[in-house]
Design goal:
This protein has 403 residues and is an alpha/beta fold. The protein has a single domain, classed as Rossmann fold (3-Layer(aba) Sandwich). It has 17 helices and 8 strands. Helix 10 crosses helix 11. It binds 2-acetamido-2-deoxy-beta-D-glucopyranose (NAG) (2 copies). One 2-acetamido-2-deoxy-beta-D-glucopyranose (NAG) binds next to loops. It holds the Pfam family Abhydrolase_3. This is Arylacetamide deacetylase. Belongs to the 'GDXG' lipolytic enzyme family. Keywords: Disulfide bond, Hydrolase, Signal.
Length: 403
């Protein structure tokens, strides 16, 4: 009996030690965040173990997070939810049921998950799409683009691009009763990356006559050039996206070869002949002083000429929208950008806001000092966070006024 009790106490202590992680003082709801963080860490560790044992690719087991969160496309009293395909790409469609009273708004939504995970049907995303559809009286097209592995850049981009382009045709907009002047793209994390890239490409596409009204970028990933920005240094181990996981997501977007991941991890993956691109992600120029903090700008070490030849994608603005020239940025739609203080991707979003403003694009930048990466997806039990609701509601309010 005594031994059993001792074992139980030991186990509880170990579990407590595993779950406990010191969090920044200003993070809201620290206990829930700690549980969320521990759950993600546990899945990460199990995935690493499965990969080491040669059972499964790391991303395949990480995808379990997506699978347990899936909900069927079910209509409710306000919104009709169906699944279909646009140009052979699966999409989940949300159509408001209330009387239209004129033409509707529309949003193309791209979910997050590092180009490797996620699904429009995950509980949190489904909930967001429903509320947007109902409260904005909007048609929401949530895209299930192909994921890595097995699909690499530019498959993810191409999928969301063809869906957007298909939807923007005047016959299609008319079929759904959508006002061509009130369509936006939106996404979080890797989906924010895709939304920014789609907005750029559309503004230069002579075949597209309909202009987007807005782009909503929720803690987007916007560049793979410098993976040692102050936000990467400050938040290397914050919930739920560590620096090493982000490096893994970036490299998996292009290849599973460890060489790229290792080069990115040491920030030596951009060859000297591409060093002119650093001006676009030069944080000593684009970050406000309070974000630069005490960090000294060094600039990445050149390297990886061979890698850049084989995987040129990470130097492509369709993967790294921050690399777009001023001339390209000038024509993109007004942006709503959310950044979180405790997020490796914080500085990507801040620099994009600064660069867009510098070219004259209207930007609403909302910086949440008490939030971490992914906060907006934690809207439902068991991981319901007040900060997630606050940030989502702020975004909805902006859309009500600007879309
Ligand atoms: C339907 O819309 C109303 C008004 O916005 C809301 O109060 C209600 O909760 C919605 N129903 C569902 C199932 O979301
Ligand atoms: C970065 O910006 C700083 C300040 O604007 C400048 O002195 C430095 O030369 C720039 N470095 C690169 C690599 O662009």
């Amino acid at each position: 009996m005594g031994t059993k009790l001792l074992c139980l106490c030991l186990l509880a202590a170990l579990l407590g030690y595993y779950i406990y992680s010191p969090l920044p003082q200003d993070l809201a709801e620290p206990w829930t965040v700690m549980l969320v963080s521990a759950a993600f860490r546990a899945v990460g560790h199990l995935s690493e173990a499965a990969e080491l044992l040669g059972l499964m690719h790391y991303m395949e087991s990480l995808r379990l997070i997506t699978v347990v969160e899936l909900v069927a496309p079910t209509s409710d009293e306000n919104v009709t939810v169906t699944e279909t395909e646009f140009e052979q790409v699966p999409v989940r469609l949300y159509l408001p049921r209330r009387a239209a009273g004129g033409l509707r708004r529309a949003m193309l939504y791209f979910h997050g998950g590092g180009w490797c995970l996620g699904d429009a049907g995950m509980h949190g995303y489904d909930y967001m799409s429903r509320r947007i559809s109902n409260e904005l009286n909007a048609v929401v097209v949530s895209v299930n683009y192909r994921l890595a592995p097995p699909h690499r850049f530019p498959a993810q981009f191409e999928d969301v691009y063809v869906v957007t382009k298909f939807f923007l045709q005047s016959e299609v907009l008319a079929q759904y009763g959508v006002d061509p002047a009130r369509v936006c793209v939106a996404g979080d994390s890797a989906g924010g990356n895709l939304a920014a890239a789609v907005a750029q490409q559309l503004s230069e596409d002579p075949e597209v006559k309909t202009k987007l009204k807005a782009q909503i970028l929720i803690y987007p990933a916007l560049q793979a050039l410098d993976l040692n920005l102050p936000s990467y240094r400050d938040n290397a181990d914050k919930p739920i996206l560590s620096r090493s996981l982000m490096v893994r997501f970036w490299s998996e977007y292009f290849t599973s070869e460890p060489a790229l991941r290792e080069a990115m991890d040491s920030n030596r993956h951009v060859p000297a002949e591409s060093s002119h691109l650093f001006q676009f992600v030069n944080w000593s120029r684009w970050l406000p002083a309070e974000m630069r903090k005490a960090h000294a700008y060094g600039g990445p070490t050149p390297g990886g000429a061979e890698l850049a030849r084989r995987f040129p994608g990470f130097l492509d603005p369709r993967a790294s929208p921050l690399l777009a020239s001023e001339a390209r940025l000038r024509h993109v739609p007004p942006a709503y950008i959310l950044t979180c203080e405790h997020d490796v991707l914080r500085d990507d979003g801040i620099m994009y806001a600064e660069r867009l403003r510098a070219t004259g694009v209207p930007v609403t930048h909302h910086h949440a000092k008490d939030a971490f990466h992914g906060a907006v997806t934690f809207l439902l039990w068991p991981f319901k966070l007040a900060v997630g609701h606050r940030l989502f509601d702020a975004c909805l309010d902006w859309l009500k006024e600007h879309l």
